Each structure stands twice: as structure tokens, then as C-alpha cells.
């Protein structure tokens, strides 16, 4: 029984509470900010009571990128997760010892700030800031509308095209080609999510899909746009589509109708400088028939809501991404909300009508897929690719990613015992820490030598992008800041850089704040290079491979990036990736399965892990999720 229930059972609680002292503890322990208190007071007509504290909890949840505060998730005995040892014993851990959860909830239902067109909203036992609730409503409604779109397709032509691109499924193996299934689903629907781990063929499948669609509609070809959340991810998508087109050997008349250039979502929507609004919106919609959004797990709730508002009613939307990666840096977890419940090796739950249609389109009417009920109303729009074609049984990276993602210690031990060529695992100790710095400096040598030889910026950037050291934390000896300094010292001692001032030739930087005027966005990477006149400029390569240069003084917030956080690496891929996790005593709350999985899956050919085994095990056990009501809004019950 919780403390609240105990009191409710008739005890005589001590109701006098020193709110000032309690709030000071919340601030001292970094749970809330002064501005949160001001806002909570404003919303609660200056009263400090139970609802005031609930609003504070909601603001804390929003800062932690949750879309809402779920009533059922509140730890009523210590709602702000205060650390007992840092508290005065006379101060309670909970601010509402005199009330019951039920009473607090009822107070909220009738509260003056709660309701439609009010600053706060309630939905399914969740408290929201209205702005975030409205984004969820927009997404749920638009996804449902898109899915309900009637798409008329010539089935026999589609069947023939699916056979052309994927072949005939052999009855003897009986193995389902999930890429073919995904293509059939996306070709016949207005909305589709295509999820799968690294190298499962998301880009290949979508390229085949676009080829099939353009063949089906060859008399009036579709306008297709490709987008990704960051410039880096957009550049990668362009590269992958180009590669997939070349591999597929498409007929020129079809190939020419598939775009190769992806852009950022911000660029597609048209940023209005100094505002968080876009040129394209619900009143001025985009001109397109098909929109492909890659790395959808990185797109936050607000941006995706603004994007779907700008998509015309007739258009199709296809979201690509890995449901198991870290969620967006900003609020929300849309892709993982939509993909909840998918399990490797299992067929996702599809309705009777969809399974019949897919069996007809993909398997000549043979019963390969079986219907399974789901109360999730978008279940028929979720395609799940399950086989990695990049990492075969000889690849340690794939095995390691799989072990971590499935939290399988047995599989992890097996992977380590195999001694894979593409994996190097080091136990974290002083010796290995120093060895890592030396190895990292050796890897960065290549791009710096190119710079000294006067190579062109595209080649220098390319060489820099081959290797990346990732850290799980920012602060402390195992964090980004210290490691950046250590690598800088190492490179300087080898005469490759001369870090006498803040800026020097060869300094790699990452933008940490969007600048819509300069069109430089969070995550963009630049390298400080001298121009023809010897002036030092930060050079960025955009998604079209063009380079843009800026005087350092003009740059928005940025930091050096010999080392980047795993969070910042999302959407990027490096031929050789190294990742360091802090030791157990420093491994804070932020180390978890999604973080480690995301770090591993950045590696294409070689992956190094520098970590204590117990920290890796600890991370594997800990799976995090964000609070959201999106899934709930999409249930049929
Ligand atoms: N059905 C297949 N059979 C054989 N090889 C395939 C198949 N599908 C994809 N591949 C190959 O596997 C590799 C990865 O494919 P692709 O880039 O499409 O995957 P992805 O899921 O988009 O990867 P990423 O993790 O980079 O997002 C490519 O080299 C591709 O040519």
C-alpha cells in the first residue's frame, strides 16, 4: 500500500509543510527550475497545493522529453525522485502527504486551467501541456486519415511488378520476404511505417517501392520527396538511394523518376527566420504525392505534427526508421510508439483483409501470412523488416547489436568468444583509456594530413567522417569535453594541429543550436580550414555535396567534435566507430540499452567498445521509454 493509501485509511498525517524549504530541495537537486515554479504558480492562480506540485511534475516530465505526465507512473511516495541522503529529515519526500491520489485527480479534472482551449489538458489518465496534446491529436488524426485513403491499384500489374523486383517466394523454403510484404503494403496504402534494424534493407525496399509506384503511375508520374531530420542523415539517405538505384539496375525511364537528393525536413518545410513556424503548413501545403521520411525515430513530436499538417490530403507518407534506437532529442517517441509490440521472428498483427490481400499480391494466393487481431488501429500500416543484409553471420557488429537489443547475456558471451574481426572490445582501465586516445589521434591523422596537403574540403570532410569516437556522457574524464581536450593534446604533440587559440586549422566542430538564418542546424559538422587568403573559416558540406564557409565569429553555438555524444551521433554512420562508456561509479541514469544499441549501430565496418563489462550488462538490462498518449489515441477500444 502506498503512503497515500495509508494516510487515506484514517491516520492523522502531519499536514503542515514548509513549501519554501521543499521547493529549495527540488531546485538544489536539479529537479525543477525557478521558471517552472513561476509557471506552475501562474497556472494555479498563485496557490501552492497538490495541483501546483502536479504541474511542477508535468514541467519536469516535459524537460525530460516526455509528452505528458502519466498519473499511473507517478511514484507517490517520492514523486520528484529526491535523494534521501541530501535531505533534511524533517522534510517529507512527498509534498502531498495529506491527500489521496484520487482526490488530487478529481481536483485536476475540475481545475480552471484544464480543458479544451485551456493551457492544460487531460487524456486517458495523463496530464498534458495543451501544445503537446494538440500535436498528438494532429498526428493521430492525420495518420488515421492517411491510412483510410482509398488507393486504387491495378492488382495484377502490382503482383507482376512485385515478382519482377522480389522474385517468387519458394514454397519449399516457405520463408516470408518481409521486404516484398512491406512494398505491397506501402503500395496500397496512404500511410506506412517501415521499421527494421541496421542493414535490413529499408532504403533498398523503399527504392524498389518508388520504382514500382512510378511504373504503376507512369502516365502521370508521382512527385516524390525524400527527407531526413538532419543534414547528415539527409546526405546519407541521398547516398543510399543512389547506391540502391545503381544496384537494382533499373530501367532508365523508371530510374529517372526516382529522386536522388534528400533534404532536411526544415528545408522542405521552409524555415521562416526567427520563428518556429514554416512557409509550408496546413494553409499552404507542400506540392508532393509521396513523402519519404528517413530516420523517423529522430523526428520529434512537434516537427512531425507540423510536417503532417503540411502534407496534402491525397499524398502518401512513408516513415522509415529503427524503432529500437534512441528517441528524438526533443519531446516525443513517435516511431517507437507506433511500433510497440513488434518482436523479431514473429509476424506483426495484420487484419484478415490485409493478410488476404498480401497473400494474393506477394504469394500467389498461398497462405503465408495469417491474420491476428490488434486493437491498434494502424497495425495494418506497420511493416517490419527482420533480416540484416549488411551484417551476416561473420559480422560481429550485427551480433553485438542483436545481443544488446535483446538483452541476451548468453548471446553476448558467444559473440565475444567468436573473436570477430570487425569487433574490438576493451575493458576500461587507465591503460586502455590512454591507448584509446592514441588510437583516436592516429585515426584523425588522415584528414589532417589531407588538410596540410591542401586537399579539397569535400575530401577532407569525407576522411574525417570515416572514424568517430562516441562517448555516453558530456562531463568528467570519460565525457566528451575531457576526451576532446585529450585528443587535441595528442594531435598537437604530433604537430598535426596548433591549438593556440579557440579556433585553429583542422578543428572539427558540431553545431549545437539551429540557426535558421544561416541554415546551420543542430548536428551539422564543420571543419575549420584556411581559405585561399589564409582566413580561417568553418567549412560545411551540405546534403548536395556543396560546401559552405562561415567566419567562426558568425557561427551559432557549437563545440569541438573529435568526440561526440552517442545522442548526437544518431542518424550518422561511420566506417570505424569507437564508443566509450564511463565506469560503474560514474555510469549515471542516462546509460541504457537504446543508447548503447544506437552507438553500436553507427559502425559500418569496425566497432570498438571501451567499457567495463558490468556497465555494458547494466545498460542492456535498462530499457527506457518516454511517456506519451499517442498509442492510446490510436487504439480502437
Ligand atoms: N534482399 C536483399 N538481399 C541481399 N542484399 C540486400 C537485400 N536488401 C538489402 N540488401 C543489401 O544490404 C545492404 C543494406 O541495405 P539498406 O541500405 O537498404 O538497409 P537499411 O535498412 O536502409 O540500412 P541502414 O541501417 O543504413 O538504414 C545494402 O548493401 C543492400 O544492397
UniProtKB/TrEMBL annotation:
Q: Which HAMAP family match?
A: RecD (MF_01487)
Alphabetized InterPro entries for the sequence: AAA+_ATPase, Coronavir_polyprotein_1ab, P-loop_NTPase, RecD, RecD_N, RecD_N_sf, UvrD-like_helicase_C
Which keywords appear in this protein's UniProt record, sorted alphabetically? ATP-binding, DNA damage, DNA repair, DNA-binding, Exonuclease, Helicase, Hydrolase, Isomerase, Nuclease, Nucleotide-binding
Q: What is its EC number?
A: 5.6.2.3
Please report which protein family the annotation says this sequence is part of: Belongs to the RecD family.
For this entry, the protein name equals RecBCD enzyme subunit RecD
Q: How does it assemble?
A: Heterotrimer of RecB, RecC and RecD. All subunits contribute to DNA-binding.
Q: What is the lineage of its organism?
A: Bacteria, Pseudomonadati, Pseudomonadota, Gammaproteobacteria, Alteromonadales
* Record PANTHER family: DNA HELICASE B (PTHR43788:SF6), DNA2/NAM7 HELICASE FAMILY MEMBER (PTHR43788)
Q: Which parts of the sequence belong to the AAA+ ATPase domain?
A: 188-452
Q: What does this protein do?
A: A helicase/nuclease that prepares dsDNA breaks (DSB) for recombinational DNA repair. Binds to DSBs and unwinds DNA via a highly rapid and processive ATP-dependent bidirectional helicase activity. Unwinds dsDNA until it encounters a Chi (crossover hotspot instigator) sequence from the 3' direction. Cuts ssDNA a few nucleotides 3' to the Chi site. The properties and activities of the enzyme are changed at Chi. The Chi-altered holoenzyme produces a long 3'-ssDNA overhang and facilitates RecA-binding to the ssDNA for homologous DNA recombination and repair.
- NCBIfam families for the chain: recD (TIGR01447)
Native species: Pseudoalteromonas aurantia 208
- Positions that bind ATP: 196-203
